Amino acid sequence: MLLWFGIFLLAAGLASFAVDRQAAHFFHDRIHVRLHRRIARTTDWAKGAYWLALSATVFVVSQAGIWLWGATPLLHLWADTSLAYLTSLAIGSAALHSMKTLLGRRRPKDELELELFGFRPFHFDLQYDSFPSGHALTIFCVAVIASAVMPLLAPLWFTIALYLALTRAFLNAHFLSDVFIGSAIGLLTARETVLYLFPNLLQPWF
């Protein structure tokens, strides 16, 4: 099921290339200041540094607990969950940042302020790093791992992930295609990480 969802996100990302510029102008013109501020207050919930720090802390605490009190199913679950996320984020981020650097896509602000749009491949200019979205990758990694641990809440995790990913487009920090492709990379990377490296977390519907 997650494989098909990932493929759908990829397809949505590819289709979005046709409407990226129009969507950027639509969000810029239609999202008023008050709503923009509300969205801005939530968008960084998908920031990689926060989840990285949380996962690293959980892993250290779980290892300390195992050392102090011995292995328990709960401490093993904490350790595996945090390590699965850290591994997913590392693999996904390596792919994502390689694409960002090599493809060099301009941000929506260049389209809105300067009427400049497109990719500048192999220029290796760090200011052109719109594609794909790192926030989207991060939060979809979180959604997959959270769904592995609490599968009954999977619809909630993915609803939250989709909203937080889309905030990047609503705020014109990224184009729609950046968001959908980043989401797909995060979802598929986390799924494959669980499938091959942490099969004890695997759900039958993954």
Instruction: Give the integer mean of the pLDDT values.
Output: 95
Number of domains: 1
Structural class: mainly alpha
Shape: elongated
Level-2 CATH architecture:
Up-down Bundle
CATH classification class: Mainly Alpha
Please report the number of helical segments: 9
Helix content: over 70%
Cα distance spanning the termini: 6 Å
Describe this protein with a few key phrases.
206 residues; mainly alpha; Vanadium-containing Chloroperoxidase, domain 1; 9 helices
Mind explaining what this structure looks like?
The protein has 206 residues and is an all-alpha fold. It has a single domain, classed as Vanadium-containing Chloroperoxidase, domain 1, CATH 1.20.144. It is 74% helix and 0% strand. It is built from 9 helices and no strands. The longest helix is centred in the middle third of the chain and has 31 residues. The radius of gyration is 18 Å and the shape is elongated. The model has no long low-confidence stretch (mean pLDDT 95).
